Structure formats: C-alpha cells, structure tokens
Amino acid sequence: MASNSFGSLFRFTTWGESHGPAIGVVIDGCPPQLPLSEEDIQPWLDKRKPGQSRFATQRQEADAVKILSGVFEGKTTGTPISLMIENADTRSKDYEAIKDVFRPAHADYTLWAKYGLRDYRGGGRASGRETACRVAAGAVARNILGPKITIRGATVQIGPHKIHRERWNWAEVAANPFLCPDAAMVPVWEDYVEDIRKKGSSIGAVVEIVAEGVPAGLGDPVYDKLDAGIAGALMSINAVKAVEIGAGFAAAIMTGEENADEMRQGQAGVPEFLTNNAGGILGGISTGQNIVARFAVKPTPSILSPLRTITTKGAEIDLSTKGRHDPCIGPRAVPVGEAMVACVLADALLRHRALSVRL
Amino acid sequence: MASNSFGSLFRFTTWGESHGPAIGVVIDGCPPQLPLSEEDIQPWLDKRKPGQSRFATQRQEADAVKILSGVFEGKTTGTPISLMIENADTRSKDYEAIKDVFRPAHADYTLWAKYGLRDYRGGGRASGRETACRVAAGAVARNILGPKITIRGATVQIGPHKIHRERWNWAEVAANPFLCPDAAMVPVWEDYVEDIRKKGSSIGAVVEIVAEGVPAGLGDPVYDKLDAGIAGALMSINAVKAVEIGAGFAAAIMTGEENADEMRQGQAGVPEFLTNNAGGILGGISTGQNIVARFAVKPTPSILSPLRTITTKGAEIDLSTKGRHDPCIGPRAVPVGEAMVACVLADALLRHRALSVRL
Amino acid sequence: MASNSFGSLFRFTTWGESHGPAIGVVIDGCPPQLPLSEEDIQPWLDKRKPGQSRFATQRQEADAVKILSGVFEGKTTGTPISLMIENADTRSKDYEAIKDVFRPAHADYTLWAKYGLRDYRGGGRASGRETACRVAAGAVARNILGPKITIRGATVQIGPHKIHRERWNWAEVAANPFLCPDAAMVPVWEDYVEDIRKKGSSIGAVVEIVAEGVPAGLGDPVYDKLDAGIAGALMSINAVKAVEIGAGFAAAIMTGEENADEMRQGQAGVPEFLTNNAGGILGGISTGQNIVARFAVKPTPSILSPLRTITTKGAEIDLSTKGRHDPCIGPRAVPVGEAMVACVLADALLRHRALSVRL
Amino acid sequence: MASNSFGSLFRFTTWGESHGPAIGVVIDGCPPQLPLSEEDIQPWLDKRKPGQSRFATQRQEADAVKILSGVFEGKTTGTPISLMIENADTRSKDYEAIKDVFRPAHADYTLWAKYGLRDYRGGGRASGRETACRVAAGAVARNILGPKITIRGATVQIGPHKIHRERWNWAEVAANPFLCPDAAMVPVWEDYVEDIRKKGSSIGAVVEIVAEGVPAGLGDPVYDKLDAGIAGALMSINAVKAVEIGAGFAAAIMTGEENADEMRQGQAGVPEFLTNNAGGILGGISTGQNIVARFAVKPTPSILSPLRTITTKGAEIDLSTKGRHDPCIGPRAVPVGEAMVACVLADALLRHRALSVRL
Questions:
Q1: Which of C15, D234, D318, D332 would give a disulfide with B80, using CB separation of 3.0 to 4.6 Å?
Q2: How far apart are the first and last CA of chain C?
Q3: What is the pLDDT of residue B322?
C-alpha cells in the first residue's frame, strides 16, 4: 500500500529499514531556484542523531546525508531531491533472539498480523530510525518557508514533571540534553531520568512545537484543515499517542468567554488577537498568530523488566530487553515534530499559492 | 483547493453551505451489492440533528436524506452514491448583522483572510451543518464494515465534570440528551449546562469513540498509520482541539512497565492483550483490541457576553451573539466522531483487502 | 473505487445514472472571487445536449443546470460548487428487454464482470449522459483560464471523409450539425450520415481540439506531462479509442529534420516556433504554441443489424437494437473534448501557480 | 510539483538526472511475501540498456540495479522497495556547448520557461535515462501480476515501413535489434535505419504492446478507465506523441457492424469475443481478451543537420548536434512501454482486489 509518502504538492516518500544498507527520502514538489546543499540539511540531522548523551541510545550513527538528485549548481531545479543516509552501526545479531517474539508495545505483532512476516532487525521499517528521513525533508521544507517563518520545539514534560511556562527561555533548549526550555527543570529531569535509566525502565514525555511568522490564510476548510494536517502528521511519528492544538484538552473546561481569543486592530492594519487559545488556527486556517501544537510520547517499549508475551508460534514467555535504548525518547522526538510541522506548512504554503489571489 | 474530500479507496466529498438550498455528499468507492436504502442512513442523521432538547440549538431541520444515485434495486452498484439533504429552517436575516464582523473563535476572519470574501449566512461552509454529510457517509461506511464491527461514542466530560468510568453503561447513552454513559452524572450535567445556557454562555466537552470487533492488521505503517488517520479525521471536525488514542496524554507519565500491554495466548489461537493502553493500535496497525479515541470539543463560540472584535474595515467593536446555539456542542459531536472513525476504518479495510494476502 | 473524480487542485467528481432522478458534479478547487452563474454554464450544456438535429438521438433533455453551492452573491467562494441536472426524458421501459443481455461493444459485460450487477437502464453510469457533467465542469474551468485562453473543437473526419485543412474556418463550426469547420464537406457528410442513419447503422469519427493562448510552462515533466494528462482525459470519454498530440501518429514517418519545430526570436522577446509538430507540448510542458489534440470516436454500438451475443445466463442470442441513438456520436463528443482539455489546463494552471516563481 | 510518481495503490516514484551520481525508483505498494531479487529485475533493464547495437546510442551503461530496501530474506515485506542504478558513462562536457541553447524538439525551452533554470547535462531529468527506472518498476509489477499475465511488445513500424501482421512471430522479437516480430521486415529496416544513421538523421516508429491473460473486470468506469490509464502512461514516455487501443484511429472509419466484437459462450463458461476491435477494454474495464495498445515515437531530436534555434539570451543560431544518439529510438521504447502497461495493470489488479467481491 502506498503509505510511505507525506504531503500533496510538497510531497516526500521515505524508504529503508533500520538495519538495511541505507535509508532515504525522495522529495517531490520543491520549487526551483532555492539554494540547497548538504550543509543546509546536516545540522538538523545532527540535532536528532543518537548517541549524544547518556540519556539516549548509544547507537553511533554519523547520519551523513548525501544529495543524489534535484540540485544543480547549488540550486534546486524543481525535480525530485533524493537524499540518502547510510546505516553504519547496525548490530543485527542483537535481534536474532527476538525474531520469533512479539515485543509488547512494539509493532512486532501488528506487522506480522498484517504482512505475515517482518524484518525483525532493529524494528525494520518501524524503527525510529525512519524519522531521520522526516528531519531531512523538514530541512528542505524550512528552505521553502523562508527565514520569516521559524519552527521550534521543546520538551515540556517528562513523567509527572512539567516545566514552568513563565520560565520558558528558547535559548536554554540547545543547552541541555532534554531540549528543555526551563533551566530550573533540567536538574530535576536529570535525576529523574537517570534513575529511570539505571533501572532499565523508561518514561513518557510531552513535546511542544511552535511555528512563528506563519501568515494568516494557510490551510483549508473542512477535511484538509491545517490542524487536521498537523494532528495526522504528529500522530504518525513513532510512539506518539496524543496531539493537541492551542488550549487543546483544556478547552473542554473552558467557557465560551474564556476560550474566545478576542480581536483588536493591530499595527499596520493586521488584526491582533488578545490571547491564543486557538493555537493559531481557526476553521482549519492559520490566524497569523503562533501555531502551537503539543504531543505525548509514550515510554520506550524496550525495558529490562520481564514482560509477559507470546511467540509467533503461540508460546507464552517472559521477555526482558537488553540493548541500546533511550530511557526517554521524548527529547529525540523534538526535531522530528518540528520537521513534520515544517512539512505541513510548506505544503499548505504551496497549496495556498495556487488559489489565494485572483487569477 | 480540493480539500472537501476524505479517504482514499472509500472516499467521500461534501458540498453545501448552511443557508444554501441543500447540502450533500458524494460517496465514491463503496463496494457493489451492499443493501442500502434511505432507511439505513436516516437514523444516524436523526441522532445528530438539531432541535431535540433544550440543550441544543432550536434550529428545526428534518435532515431528510435522499439517495440520488449509486443504488439500484436496493443494492449499491459500485458507482458514486449521491446523497442530498435540503436546508429548511434557514433564517439568513439573522446573520445580516454580522456580515462585516469577525466573530471571535469562529472561522470568519481566517476565511476572509484566505479567500477575500465569505458566505456569512450561518457560517456558510464552516457551519457545523456540514457534519450531517459526514454522518451520512459514516452510515454507508458502517454498511461496508458489516455487523461484526461496532462503533459507538459517548460524552465523557462536560466542563470540569468527568464521568466515572466504573459506571459506564452503553445502554444509558441513548437515554439522556448528553449521550452520557454514566447515569449518575446526567443530573449533574443537566444542572451545570442549564446554568450555562441561561447565562447565554457555553462550555467545552470531551467525547470518546470506541470501535469494537476490528480485526488485527488494519492500517498502514509510517504516514498512513491508523491512529494518524483517526487523529486527522477527528481534528477535522469543527471545534475539535485535541485527540488522543488509548492512554493518550496519560502515556507521558507512565513508565515502560506501566504502559506495555502484555500479551497472552487467547482463545482460538488469537493473541490476547492484558490491558489496552495502546487504544487498539500499535505501529499504526490495529491490534484486534478495541480502538479507543477521545477528542476535546471547545465551547460554542456564539455567546451572549459581549466580546471585543473588529470589522472587515478594521473598526473595533464589542459583539454579543444572539440566536439559536448549543450551550455545549460536545454531545452533538458524538455521532460525527463515530462517523469519521467508521469512514477511516472502512477505507483501511478496503486498503487492507488490496494487499493483505498473497496474490 | 474512488474513480469518479478528475484533476488534482482543480478537481471534480461526477455522479448519477442515465435514468436516475438526476446527474451532477461537485467541483472542488475553484479559486474564489470568480463571477459565476448558471448562465455561464448553460450555453456549453446546450451545445452538447441531445435532440438538436436528425443526426443525433431524439431523447429530449432540457439539461438545465442548477448551482447548489459554492457561489455567493454572484461569485465563487472557494468552496465546492455543486451542480445538478435533472433527468427528464427517461424511458426506462425501453431497456427491460436488454436487462439480461450483454450488448456487444457496450460496457454491459465488463460492468457485470466487475460488479456482478448493473443498472441496465440506459447504460446507467456508463451512459454518454455522464458527459454533461464534464461539460459543466469545463465551463467552470474556462472561467479559471480566463478570456486569453480559448479552447475550441471540431469534427475533422466522419468515416472515410476527412475535411480539407486549407478550408478550415472556425466560423463554420456552429453553422452545421456536425461541428464541421469545412463548409464544403458538410453536404458530403449529410448524405453519408443520412444513409447510415436510414440503415440503422452507425459510423466513427475524428475530433480535433485546439487550445489557443496557453502560456509556456504549464504541465509537469515525467508522469504528469501535460500531454499525458490530455491523453488520459480524452481517452476517458466514452467511445474514444485513440488520442494524438500535434503530428501524432504521423511523427512515426518523419525524420528528425521534418519533425523538429525550429525556433526564432519572436515579437516582444517571446520565442517563436516555425512549425507545430509538437502540438504545443515538449517534454510534457506547454511551449506557448497552440495545443492540438485529436481523438477517434468509435461508431455508436446500438445498431439495427442483429449481432451475435450472449445473456447473463450464457444463452447465445442475436440482438438488434431499436431506440433513440446517434448514427455518428463524434460531433456530440466535440464539446466534451473541449471541456476535458479545459479542465486539464485549469488544473495545470493552478499547479503551475504553486511553483512557478521564486518564493 | 509532486509529478514524479505513478500509480495509486501500486505506486512508484523516480528520481535522478542523466548525469548525476545515480538514478532510482522507490516502489510503494508492493504486496508482501513475493519472491524478489536483483536477478528478477536486471534482465528487463538489460533489454532496455543502451549500446547494444549500432542502431542505438553508444553510451555504455551497465545499468546494474541494487535493492536498498523492502526485501528481507528474499521476499518483499510490504515496505517500500528502493532501487538504485549508478550512472557510469557520463560525458557532461559534451553538453557544455548547449548549456545556453534551446535544442529544437527537446524539452530545453519548456523546462527553462517553467523553472527558469535547467540541468543541461544530458537532458537532466528529461533524459530517456529516466525510463530505466520505469523498467525496474515494471519488473516488480510483473511479479505482482504473476505468471498467468504476459506483457510483450514489439516495434511494428519504422518510418513508412510497417510490418506484415500475418507474419507476426513473437520469437523473432528477441532475434533482431529492432524488436521486430516480422523476420522479413528486419533487412528492410536495417537498410533504412543504417541510411538514416549515416546521414546523422533520425526517424520515428510505432510500438505495439500486448497483454495476455488479463482477467475480465480490471479497471474502473469513468475517469480511471483502464484505457485512460494506459493512454496516460504511454503518453508520459519521452518522445511519444500518440496512443491507440485496439482498432484505435481505424475505428473512425468503421460502421457499428464492423466495429462490434460479437460474443459467444466460450469454454468453461467464459464468454468469448469473435474479434478484438476493442483492444480488450470496454467501458474502461478489461474484457478478458488481449489488451492491445500502440504508440507513436517521434524521431530523436538530436540530429546532425543544422536547425534554426535561439539561445537563452535570445540570439538566433543554427544548431547541429553531435554525440551519441539513437537513429530510431522506437525499439528502445518497447521495454518501457511494456513496463508502463505492467504497472497500470498491477495497480488495477490491487484496486480490483479492494472492491471486487462482497465484503
């Protein structure tokens, strides 16, 4: 089934398994004449790559991206941009033991139920490694969006520990391994996650993505609402179980008075909103305010504690997972969430160009 | 922009404005030889239609559906099924007053920003009336899914008042105007919403949809994950601001041990899960357990309290909305949420048929 | 299967059977603020409608179009435009006799093979009546293309009788029932087709469509080539068996020297081509020259002569078709071919707008 | 614009320029558990590759395909199959001379008009080299179709010289460099094309593709007719200017009596057609007869004779093309045409599986 593509006008298709020779992405629908080189993409991949702190898997991957097509003399040509990342540190033997076992909370059973077989090495296609391709596509999407639109993310909750929003400082995000915008929360998370890690356990998290500078008018009414697109995009990331826009679930306890973002006439004739419960989207279309989305990431399924499960033959066993895993995968989902929002917005921008002005 | 369609193989397209002559839906991709008549569709529309209690808008619509094509001698033929519902109780004059005003928390400003004009009568295309077409499509989707798959929904929270899950009784849902499965909560909500209604205010809610009998293997990995499809589908419903699957945001505070749904060998060789934090979906593919999704509905934007806003000319005004509105739109979103989940599942079922077995 | 839609950004979906209550089309992706009324669409439908000469079927249909949505105060709003045409002159009883018979050269057998049933009344969905919806969509497409782009068609061959191209006069097309641009050919065709008609036989034809004023740059390389789009669009019209662009099949007997359209610098800095063997398209993208496409229409399958065929039960019979049929359907395909080319171009124009200029 | 993909359920996306490091194709939607190795794909590429006779370009390419993903332990897994072919014999310097020139009958001008720049080396993305990826995708499509469906092609006309159909012998096709099924025609073509080649000229051709064993019922009515899909697919091949199905343009001179393929009850209860003017497709759906399609290939644009043209700056020049080109590209289009028909049929088969039987 053709389910490995994302987007309509700005559309990318990813391929590759965790332990195959390489993974890659083909980006179709990038406008011509945009400057693009591997140096524009690599920093975003570096931000996502594993092995950068003791709070992440120790798999070592350079994640060096190669541009194979679509760029000529430093500029995009309008043709497909093929990007490839070779897999280096694959230890497939680690996975021999689980080839006939359904690891709980993994996709093992469902892939087997669907296809009758699975590439069990490192999760195959269901591995988080696939998200490197999303990040690469997101880097190209940012190029389309241009410098006026900024998309940033941060981890805002790990386990029960939420950041204090009044201490939010974007500059802190790059300064700690959790991508936490609240400096005072970092030591709390360090102790908490270190404890989780030592136990061989794992913990969930919440990530927030903010897109600034998005003009009013992007998105479509009804089924291709901008928030519907963002919700689908974020929910498609491995381990994500919930998505909310603006006030999100808190909107359920608000009255109409509390929820309504009142409007005044702002500078330069642009309407101004006095609050942003809408998270920058009304009726599926951007309002010009910041677009704010949050998503929950479940705990990494691979843990040391033995879990009850079954084999492909139906035998009941207890399974304990050793290996190189992230005690909290949340922070590594931050660049992936940013990338998906960038791709949704780039597609919406191109779609908007097709129809926004009088022909 | 072609954004009024939903689905791939089972695909429907809706049209029509709140105060135009009619609304309708064209369903393309319904398999042949399924029994179908207006009587199969009407009951679902009746469940959604307005004017049925003092807690809902008093607009009176018969919402009588007509089948215009695609059915011959009582059976679907494989050709497009065109359904039409005439608009009856349109009081467009009510809307003259707001034709040049951006109602806060409505799509008025964003539609105007996008298109430079809008059909202001009753919200035009952005009206909740469009959801009747979703419900009609959902009725056909249920026909495709067959009697073994049941999709039901309920309101589980209004404002701060959550139901008690241990009192959940599906039989209660049809017995109260809130579609509440907890009989003891009904009088609490009655008092609470009546108070909101009398003040001319409104309040948000949370709705839960449960799909039972879905076989393992539906859905696709990566970008067309079943949960990504459900998230996009539910978020595309008017006023929805958040979606979660299974444990949802609660997964953020769970450890790997708490979150993992352990497996045992069940009856008749089918694997059995001991819990359902996954909400019936792992790796984007159904597990065979109940699929459980929840979504938050924001309070109806139309309230009596004056709100600060601006006109299309930039004048700053205070706006108070009179008219026929729902104090809590949540319960009326229940059949819509059910319908969208039914459509996602019908599409996934058809897609699965294309690839599941050896050719 | 969702196969009743055409186009990507400018996308329409048709529905309805020949003898159902109505047929219709939903147009999604029309830009906002274009003037549109039923009077803009009706003339094109009138050009296609049956019963206008003794050389066409005597079925009487007003083919009066109604706009049900998407237009407000005389302008498009960017929302779906729903158009409906009621069926009036349906004589379904005429078709009782063939309900269990596969009429040769019709879709009867293949629809039955695919779906296991068929709406046999007047061909159901496979009726040429569906093309009225294409013509309606084409009228909206012309509105998007604007007055600088003209799309016209003519019948250029009936049976063995080809027009003389040096006598081509567009003004003649509207002056005869064959839509023939060669006045001297009209009496020849009159005699020829009248003879065919009296015998209860039928004959094939070739139609040519010319689009003038199309700017260079529309279309896409590789799989969405403009000529691939036109070929698919024209071949999707009932009874069409062949399509060619520019020199078409004659290119097979040309040398590179004969085929190449040489270029000179033209007026106002626009390149000029000295010939147009390419038919206005190179590498799948428009050159700025006239786009020229031709298609062959097979003879109407319904004829008086008995043909050998079988029933759904496998009985072998001889079938003679009486009723109201066109002795040569070619001329009635002219407005349909124009409409399809208009729709392909409108879609290409919108797609081009998304990517053509630097962001 | 996302225009480098083909197909819906069986969908492939190609990338790469003629003189970049590699070209490739990502196939999404191949069912699981099909045996697949590089050895299944390479023979089809070998049939297409250049440099195999004096009648084809002398560019030497091994065209060795590598499978990068989607196959595990010799079987497809249902995940994307990424195939890559490295470019070896690129002489980009040959193209420096034409970097600012629009070669007549090439895509040079239109690509420049669309994108404002072009990768001029060897035609970049518009090179016939892209068709290797189509052939690779076609090999996978054949695997899906299985051994009962055979798709073969042959050159049936070069310049004015048509084969004699009564001498058609499939075994001859592999025995001559023209893929000619008429042994007696081979020496005629040899003399004719050798003369063309010596003059530095080129000539057009007609290719025929025949698909045998296709069951009745594949394809869809209306816009996704099987013949519309084949027409679009074949017209999307570089240099193709015309497509016909069955009788094709000859249908224009047929009466209804001549054109109708009469039916009798055949062996094993399967209907039998007495002729095949329909080319195996009625109403857009396969009849069970052979599917027969023909397409015209224009002469290679690169010729020695000087042609009038202009530069990107508007200067008028005369251009003579030296280099390694095919005097008649027709025969090399045969495997490409086969591949495209195979891909259309594989997609139709998967689509059919989704809807053909009662759920």
A1: C15
A2: 37
A3: 77
How far does the CA of residue C315 sit from the closest CA of chain A (Å)? 41
Q: Which two tokens stand for residue A75?
A: 């500029």
| Lowest pLDDT segment from C47-51, D84-88, D228-232 | C47-51
Give the residue on C whose Cα is nearest the Cα of A222. Answer: C79
CB pairs < 8 Å spanning A and C: 45
Q: In what order do the strands lie in the sheet with A81-86?
A: A5-6, A11-15, A22-28, A81-86, A65-67
Question: What is each CA distance from C38 to B284, C63, C67, in whole angstroms?
Answer: 46, 12, 6
Question: B329: phi > 0 → left, psi -120 to 50 → alpha, else beta; which?
Answer: alpha
How many contacts (CB atoms, under 8 Å) link C and D? 372
**What tokens does C33 get?**
């603020």
Question: Shortest CA distance to C102 belongs to which of C87, C89, C90, C114?
Answer: C114
CA distance A16 to chain C (A): 24
Strands C307-310 and C316-319, bridge-based pairing: antiparallel
Q: Residue D221 and residue C125: Cβ atoms within 8 Å?
A: yes
What is each CA distance from B178 to B174, B183, B190, B200, B201, in whole angstroms?
9, 10, 9, 18, 17
Q: Which of C201, C235, C310 sits opposite D264 (nearest CB)?
A: C310
Q: Which residues pair with B128 in a beta bridge?
A: none
Q: What is the rounded distance in angstroms from the CA atom of residue D190 to the CA atom of residue D55?
A: 9
Which chain A residues are within 8 Å of C284, Cβ to Cβ? none
CA–CA separation, D12 and D262 (whole Å): 38
Helix (H, G, I), strand (E, B) or coil at D149: coil
Contact state of A9 with C351 under an 8 Å Cβ cutoff: yes
The continuous run of DSSP H or E covering B198 comes out as: helix B186-198
Q: Decide if D354 and B353 are in contact by the 8 Å CB cutoff.
A: yes
Q: Strands A22-28 and C75-76, how do they pair?
A: unpaired
Global confidence as pTM: 0.97
For the record, the structure tokens of D4 come out as 């480098």
Q: What is the dihedral of CA A337, A341, A343, A349, to 10 degrees?
A: -170
B170 interfaces chain C, CB cutoff of 8 Å:
no
Tracing tokens 């995000």 back to the chain, one arrives at A173
Q: Give SS3 for C294.
A: strand
What CA–CA distance (Å, rounded) separates D293 from D153? 9
Inter-residue contact A18 to A88 (CB < 8 Å): no
Whether chain D has a CB inside 8 Å of the CB on B3: the answer is: no
Distance from CA of D347 to the nearest CA of A (A): 10
Give yes or no for a contact between D29 and D7, defined as CB atoms under 8 angstroms apart: yes
Nearest CA-CA partner of D158 in D355, D324, D327: D327
State pLDDT tens for residues A103-140: 999 999 999 999 998 888 888 899 999 999 999 999 99
Determine the 3-state secondary structure of A8 from DSSP.
coil
Tell me which residue in A29, A33, A359 faces C144 most closely, judged by beta carbons: A359
Question: Is the minimum CB–CB distance between C4 and chain D shorter than 8 Å?
Answer: yes
3-state helix, strand, coil in chain C (%, to 5): 35, 25, 40
Closest chain D residue to C314, measured at CA: D265
**Residue D226 Cα, gap to closest chain B Cα (Å):** 16
Which among A121, A138, A94 is positioned nearest to A17, based on CA atoms? A121
Q: Which amino acid is at A350?
A: L
Q: What is the pLDDT of residues D52-95, one digit of tens each?
A: 777 777 667 788 999 999 999 999 999 999 999 999 876 667 77
Token output for B227: 């949960």
Look up residue A206 and give its DSSP letter: E
**Treating both helix axes as pointing N-terminal to C-terminal, what angle do A330-355 and A226-235 enclose, rounded to 10 degrees?**
150
pLDDT at site C56 = 74
Name residues 8-27 of chain C within 8 A of D (Cβ): 14
Taking CB atoms and an 8 Å limit, are A75 and D3 in contact across chains? no
